[in-house]
Structures are given as C-alpha cells and as structure tokens.
Specification:
This protein is mainly alpha-helical. Helices cover 81% and strands 0% of the residues. It contains 24 helices and no strands. The chain is globular. It starts with a helix and ends in an 11-residue tail after the last helix.
Length: 498
C-alpha cells in the first residue's frame, strides 16, 4: 500500500523526467495495443451489425453518460493532486464511490422507461436496465486507478487495460457472431469493466474497508466538486448532439452519424486522454516551479500536435477509402461527415490539453468555466445544425469547436503562464507540415486511377507518411530532433537547467 500513496514531490527533476517517460511508454503503449485489439473486434462487429443497432446504442449511451459524471471519479482524483494521502482518506474515497455508484445503478433503473419514451424507442429501456451493472464495477476501477496514477505506476494499469481489452473484444465477437444484434454493444463493455476492475484491484493491492464517515474530507470534496461540475458540462457538450438528434433522426441516420464521430474522434479521445493521465500527476509535482511547469506544457503540446495533426488532416483527405476499407460499402454515407468533423478535431485536442494543467495548479474552477461555455456553445450549434440532418451536426462541430477552443485558451493561458506566442510556436510545426502533407495526398488522390479502396488507402497513407517526415526534416528539424532525443532518453536541446 505504501508505494501507492507515498509523496515524491522532493524527487530530483531527472528522476521525475524518467518516471514520466516510463509512464508515457506504459500508458500510451498499452492504450495503443489495447485499442488495436478493440478496434479489430469493433471493425469486425460493425460489418455484422446494422447502423440501426448503433443508433439505438447511442441513445442509451447519452443517458449513461449523463449519470456517469456522478460516479465519484472526480472526488477520487483529488488523491492525485494532494501533497499527501493517508489510509483514512483512501477509505473515505472508497466509501463515497460505493455509495454514489450504487445510487446511480438504482436511478438508471428508474429513469429507463422515461428515456425510452423520450426517444420513442422501447428497446432503449431494456438496454439501460442491463447497463446499470456497469456502475457496480466502477468503485473497483476508480480507486486503484487513481492511486496507481498518483505513483506514476502505469505498468500495472497497462496490464489491466490489456486484459480488459481482450475480454471486451472476445465478448463482442462472440455475441455478434451469435446474432445478439444491439445486445453485443451492451455485453462487451460489461465484460471489459468487470475484467478491468478485478485486474486493477489485484495489481494495486488496494482492497480496503470503506469508510462512510466523511469528517475532515472537505478538501477532497471541494476539489472533486469542481471536477464534477466540469465533467457535467463536458458530458452535456459531448452528448448534446445525440440527445437532440435522437428525436429528429431515424436510428439508421443516427447510427451513421455516431460512427462517423467515433472514427474521427479516435485519436483525440483514445490517445490524448492517456497522455493527460500522465500529465496530471507530472504537472502536479511541478506546480510550485512555474518556469518548469510552463516549459513542460508547451513541450507536451508541441509533441502531441505534431503527432495528431497529420492524422486528422490525413483522415479528412482519405475519408472515402478509409470508410470503405474499414467499415464496408453499407457505411458509405459516413464519408462526407468524416471529412467535415475531422477538421474540428485539432480544436478538440487543443481544448482537452488544458484541463490537467489547470487542475494540477489547484484551479479546477477554470476547467469548469471552460466546459460550461463549451456546453452552451455546442448545444446551440447542435440545435441549429440538426435541422439540416446529420450533415448539419457535422458542420456544428466545425463551427462550434474553434470558438470553444478559443475560450479555453483565453482562460487557461494566463493561469499556467504560457503566452499566445508560445502557444502558436508549439502548434506551428505540426500544423504547417500537416497542411502541406494534406495538399500532397489530396493531389495524389486526384491523379490515381480507379482501384480497390484498400490499395488506394495504402498508397495514400504511404505517400502521406513519407511526405510528412520529409517536411518536418526540412522545415522543423529542431522539433524532429527533440522527439528523437526524447525517444532515446537523452536531454533534448533547450531543456531548462535545474
């Protein structure tokens, strides 16, 4: 237990740097491997199920998401930011998690018929009743997860995540092949959650007696309350489209839109959050050294944008062969939606990078205001866009998120001590190279003769990868060298002396 909550704020800078490298390797590496397993199963399942199944599932997910923000994860995350954590505080966090999630399971059972009536889809009630089982596993995921994150021990998390991914993928394939239809999408997450709960509990060695005496836990509740409100606004913003569209679009149309969104958000929602998981405890250790803190943020921003921008641009210009290759011809209606939404993803990525930085300096209220603004901006955009169908929802992403990201920058940059110039300098190398790469790939696509989608995709991806690396070598050699130095565990040029 001691290794989980021991404080290490007095470690030398070099030790923290090594811990962060190891954490990034295990957290991001496990995420990549786990997602490859899940995506393989997901793509196979998508070819078996119908768009209507995904539309019904998306409707149930909105209700699940609206309740999940109350699961207490935000309160438990206060254990990461605190300078010291006692066994008593851990027992209090566990007790709180058990109470909240048990209550949520009961609440979801009660509101399931109301949700079905709202969508005019009786099946939604049945889906929600079974999905209530997810809450019962959450306490056994959240507590060991935050304690392992606090210790920057992402190796144990990696093993648990991989085991969960295998369980979820196997369940999805078995159910889809057995003709379970939409129930496949319910069974797989349940298998994943319970496997992860068991694996994390074993890996962390944390299975404590819960305490329901919450005396002297005010700091945890204050921090958690701000995070909770932030999560609520984020959930409103990120689920408003399906909640609104569920009454306007058919399940088929909603399924097409939901999967287009899934494809375009893969990089922003599957790979960036794991990096934020590492960034939060790492930033927390630097919160009293603002020079090092600001330098670390801009470096993280530069590297993440360098890695994600070519993926977003590449997805936009190769949308047709990507969809036809991965999803099949029956999902071809996704193509124009993917092209539009992909260009909104850089703004989403930028926005979500600020939260771990502002939370680490003990100011979670900034994220709350930002996500509150985002909830208003995106809800208005979706209300307008839905009148033009799924395409209108896609355009709502591209018009609303640049404004949302701008609000995030205005509120976060002064707090973390980063200038607009430094922000632009961190984004520019990846943006310029990605834009030039996109133009090259787009031009090549117009020149290629008719061929099988997978061959076309292979040629375009190869050309894009080669051209992007070449463009970085020519125009952003210093940034490329910095990444190579980081990968080789050497001190990169420009690292501040300590």
């Amino acid at each position: 237990m001691d290794r989980v909550f021991v404080t290490t704020t007095d470690n030398p800078q070099a030790d923290l740097s090594n811990q962060v490298r190891s954490a990034v390797f295990w957290r991001s590496g496990s995420q990549i491997v786990s997602q490859m397993v899940m995506w393989g199963a997901t793509l196979a399942v998508i070819r078996i199920l119908d768009p209507k199944d995904y539309g019904l599932f998306a409707m149930s997910q909105v209700i699940l998401a609206l309740l999940t923000f109350l699961n207490g994860y935000g309160f438990a995350s206060a254990l990461i930011q605190a300078d010291t954590v006692s066994p008593k505080r851990i027992r209090q966090a566990f007790g709180m998690l058990l109470l909240l999630n048990g209550g949520l399971a009961i609440l979801q059972l009660l509101i399931a018929p109301l949700a079905a009536a709202y969508y005019h889809q009786p099946m939604v009630a049945d889906l929600l009743r079974v999905q209530a089982l997810l809450y019962l596993a959450t306490p056994f995921i959240a507590l060991p997860d935050v304690l392992l994150s606090r210790a920057l021990d992402f190796r144990a998390q990696a093993k648990a995540n991989f085991a969960a991914a295998i369980a979820g993928a196997a369940t999805a394939l078995a159910c889809a092949l057995s003709g379970w239809g939409v129930w496949t999408l319910v069974a797989a997450p349940i298998a994943l959650f319970y496997t992860r709960a068991i694996a994390l509990t074993i890996a962390s060695g944390v299975l404590v007696k819960p305490s329901f005496n919450f005396r002297d836990s005010g700091s945890m509740f204050r921090f958690g309350a701000a995070v909770l409100l932030t999560q609520f606004f984020w959930i409103v913003q990120s689920n408003a489209d399906v909640f609104i569209a569920g009454r306007w679009l058919t399940p088929h149309q909603l399924g097409i839109y939901a999967e287009a969104l899934f494809l375009t958000q893969i990089f922003a929602t599957k790979f960036v959050p794991p990096l934020n998981d590492v960034a939060f405890p790492a930033y927390s250790r630097l919160q009293h050294d603002r020079a090092a803190f600001s330098w670390a943020f801009t470096k993280a921003l530069r590297i993440i944008m360098l890695a994600t921008l070519p993926l977003y641009v590449g997805l936009a210009v190769t949308a047709e062969p990507v969809v036809l290759t991965l999803f099949g011809a029956k999902w071809a209606e996704m193509v124009p939606l993917v092209r539009i939404i992909a260009f909104a993803m850089p703004f989403l990525t930028l926005q979500i990078l600020f939260a771990p930085a502002t939370n680490a300096i003990g100011r979670p209220g900034i994220s709350t205001w930002i996500t509150g603004a985002g909830a208003v901006i995106m809800t208005i955009a979706f209300l307008i866009g839905v009148r033009f169908g799924a395409t209108g929802l896609a355009w709502a992403w591209l018009t609303g998120f640049p404004l949302y990201a701008g609000v995030a920058c205005m509120m976060s940059l002064p707090a973390i001590g980063v200038s607009w110039r430094a922000l632009g300098g961190s984004i520019a190398p990846g943006l310029c190279a990605a834009a030039a790469m996109g133009a090259i790939v787009w031009g090549l696509d117009r020149l290629l003769p008719a061929m099988a989608p997978y061959i076309r995709l292979l040629l375009l991806v190869s050309a894009g990868g080669v051209s992007y690396i070449a463009l970085l070598y020519i125009g952003a050699r210093q940034t490329l060298d910095e990444i190579l130095h980081l990968a080789l565990r050497r001190t990169p040029p420009g690292t501040p002396e300590r």
